[in-house]
Structure prediction request, 351 residues.
Amino acid sequence: MVGFRLDGLTKSFGGARAVDGLRLEVADGAFLALLGPSGCGKTTVLRLLAGLERPDGGTITIGDRVVVGPGTFVEPEDRGLGMVFQSYALWPHMSVAGNVSFALHGKGLAAAEIEARTREALALVGLEDRAAARPHQLSGGQRQRVALARSLALRPKLLLLDEPLANLDPALRTGLAAEFRRLHAETRTTFVFVTHDQAEALALATTIAVLEAGRLQQCAAPEELWRRPASPAVARFIGDGRLLPVEVLGSSGAGLKVALGAARLLVPGEAPAGPGWLCVRRQGLALTDAESPDDALAGTVRASRFEGGAYLHDVAVGDDTPVEVHGPISLSPGASVRLHVTDGWVIPRQP
Ligand SMILES: Nc1ncnc2c1ncn2[C@@H]1O[C@H](COP(=O)(O)OP(=O)(O)OP(=O)(O)O)[C@@H](O)[C@H]1O
Ligand SMILES: [Mg+2]
Prediction:
């Protein structure tokens, strides 16, 4: 079953397209990260899903129900979803349990059911022993968990999370990120998690949709996005990929043969003969000291620093593109080096 589906979803604000013909289908129970730079339309997509905005066109299906389409608009409270926004608000005069149970009143539930669901939601986020506390007695991370429990108590089919970790310090972020993974596994709810932090998206999500300027660039599992970026924007955004202009000479069973300056490289990819971008990352480059092999790139060291137990060199290659490569010893700026491309990916380039 689908978790949700967007089809041709479009939304403009004063002539500027915030969401532009978005098509996206996500399986039930997925953990989707909506990833992209600031202003690319992530929050707008969540607000459209939630019913807090009306689109200019397109349809939204949640489960097997069309909630937005020609002549159809299901109100937010009838969409069966939970939301946690970056600037969540708790009622300061209510206890933790009061905040969590608040949304359950008026749903026609018996008092015992409300109490049980509140207890269950607080247990899910590890706050069962703070039920009587007031929000001001909690840390920032605990308050964020109350906001999460409040959404979980509604037992939503779809949980929308807009940068829920953004205003927490790094240690708390890591702890809560692990908690999101556990909660996702335990509740089997479809999560939509908005972030502009690609490392967070890669670590958390089962599926990542990369947006740029309101358009979908690629939607795939983390490893697929990393290994086979569909566009230069995705290559740059995921894992800090660097793009080198190459000429694709042809393909063989072993991959693509590409020319980069004097070097002839064999790399994976899907590009026709002609201009291409070779996406490389530090994990796919290695220094080589072989005497001018024709399958290595010539480069010049610009800087070296000690990082992660080894030296990380800033090297200019090709048309002065900066790349990074690890090595065992420090190198002086200006030193000539040669690099083997152990892993890369070629994307077609418009000439
Ligand atoms: N209510 C609004 N009125 C006018 N313009 C808006 C409104 N909401 C969003 N926009 C515009 O739509 C575009 C997308 O905004 P959105 O908030 O969805 O981006 P975002 O990806 O969530 O960015 P961020 O990472 O900074 O939160 C932006 O150009 C923004 O200025
Ligand atoms: Mg936003």
User: Anything to note?
Assistant: The pocket of magnesium ion (ligand 2) is lined by residues 42-43 (CB under 6 Å). The longest helix spans residues 170-187. The CA atoms of residues 113 and 218 lie 42 Å apart.
